[in-house]
Amino acid sequence: MKILRLGVGLLAAASLMTSCGNSGTKNKNGTEGALTKNAAEQVYIAPGEHDDYYAFISGGYSGNLLVYGLPSGRMFKEIPVFSQFPTSGYGYSEETKPMFNTSYGFIPWGDAHHPDISQTNGVMDGRWVFINENNTPRIARVDLTTFETAEIIEVPNSAGNHSSSFITENTEYVVAGTRFSVPVPQRDISIKDYKGEFKGALSFIGVDQETGRMEIDFQLLMPGFNYDLSHPGRDKSHGWFFFTTYNTEEANTLLEVNASQNDKDFIAAVNWKKIEEYVKNGGGKMMPAEYAHNVYDHHTHTATSTMKNEVRVIDPTEVPGAVYFLPTPKSPHGCDVSPDGEYIVGNGKLSTDLTVHSFTKMIDAIENKKFDGEAYGIPILNFDDIHAGSVKKAGLGPLHTEFDDKGNAYTTFFISSEVVKWELGTWEVKDRKPTYYSVGHLTIPGGNSREPDGKYMFAMNKITKDRYLPVGPELEHSAQLYDISGEKMELILDFPTHGEPHYAAAIKADVVKGNSLEIYDLEDNKHEYAIKSEGEARVERNGNEVHIYMSTIRSHFAPDNIEGIKVGDKVYFHVTNLEQDFDVPHGFAMIGQNNSELLIMPGQTKTTTWNPKKVGVWPFYCTDFCSALHQEMQGYIRVSPKDSDIELTWSLGDDE
Ligand code: K7E
Ligand code: CUA
């Protein structure tokens, strides 16, 4: 890796010297001093100024979604999605625990890969971000008024929910595909019976246009390949969805060898409009399937979880014209569609060429029934009939492709650690720039829509090594921002990301920022334990359950002294933040709590529990520095023995 970097660095330096012909000090990227200064200006956002774009970068194995600004690379927020987050109490508070309910029980962690932003007419509209969980298959929806997770739906009959969560042109569907095929329904069979017995489910999850609510409309039960990535058709190919497959060999052991035998795997082309129609006419069949659907309501500030017990499944061979296989070399990873919907790029990670299929040619071949056999009853098209062109010897290990607004495509190459710019139609390579190091995905704002924005591109790298000050063996990953407005790409910024940044979705800030909420309206707080004023603060005992209706306002809790709690009680703190000013949260933490603190936004109610185990007088306090008298924001709870007859009392100030 080191050798490679030096090699490319020298090349870059050499080309700069010949093109500019001037001398100057060179930094370790091989760029010249004056250019470096220019790059700094390009990413500089003056204090108090705002960035031009939001970037939503997946947190990978952190399970979360990170919000960054571009071009500065500054991080604004970590949105907890699939993982417990003690910073806010997400997944620990009573209100948010139901978000982690699944058919496997409570799952406190997830592996998030591909965020995608909602669209209207093929253009990003900034209402919601969807993101997949790979390990225990789920799709989440983040609301971009609150920047909080609003919904999580489990995907049954799936494993390794990887070719997800991509959005159709009008957010009709968020689509999820299974990476690991599994027995459907799950049952106790030999792994050797893989071939024919295992299925790959492609799930089409409908999205309600008013509320954003998700429901699984249907699952297509495909042959037992690995469905790796996907993208929707758009514009002329709207109504289709494309999925890369590997392991069409259907191997179940040593896949690194056994799943690399076939010269070509497939891109599966799915005509979802046709299947939608079939379903509307009663097609498909309901099969028993257990999966959780969890919804957070920001009026009640509470999530509910519902267990579903059936799902509609479709056998692709029963819907003529619904699915075709496009032969594609060789174990493709990314599957990307050009802004006009004409080109489908298959990034064959074991091929030296990038393969591009033509949607027009595909339709033509289908209409003329030019098939080259079938797999499990699904017609296979002829490679030559659908092939638009190939980018020859573009690099090593192509992974993902994005597009600009000038007819160019940008592909990442993992093995040769570079981004290559090439032209749609001529398939000519126009530029290549090294990435430091081993790039995975890349993102262009609006890149997965009809209207990409050709100003910036950022690469998300798997290896960080020497890019930042060393921090021991475990490093954050690194992203690199390039200016792509000119003929040649220019590296202008490195910035660290948190977790593993598989993919990111980015959008013009103007589309989103005006909708962002500042506070929750206290009057509108419908939480069942909310109080609207200090006068309503109280403590109620019900057997050994104690409910404390507590409020916060600068700079005290009400009540702040409580007596009559006993060892063995289960104490619920229902804390309402009465503030109605922007950016005045209060926190709550109790000594010896076995869960996490709460961070409560203005107008919001959150609940945490505490099991007092020891007799004594125990403090609680506000964890967020909320005013000059924040350190005074505290209280005490007296805990008496189990059999004590101390009366339950509470107080604030002199009203004892
Ligand atoms: Cu990291 Cu999109 Cu999960 Cu490729 S995937 S790198
Ligand atoms: Cu409230 Cu500190």
TrEMBL record:
Q: Does the keyword Signal apply?
A: yes
NCBIfam families (UniProt xref): nitrous_NosZ_Gp
Record's keyword terms, sorted: Copper, Metal-binding, Signal
| Protein name as annotated | Nitrous oxide reductase
Q: Which GO molecular function annotation, any one, does this entry have?
A: copper ion binding
Q: Where in the cell is it found?
A: Cell envelope
- Provide a GO CC annotation, any one: cell envelope
Instruction: Give the PROSITE patterns listed for this entry.
Output: COX2, PROKAR_LIPOPROTEIN
Q: Identify the SUPFAM superfamilies for this entry.
A: Cupredoxins, Nitrous oxide reductase, N-terminal domain
Question: What are the boundaries of the signal sequence?
Answer: 1-21
- Principal place where this protein is found? other
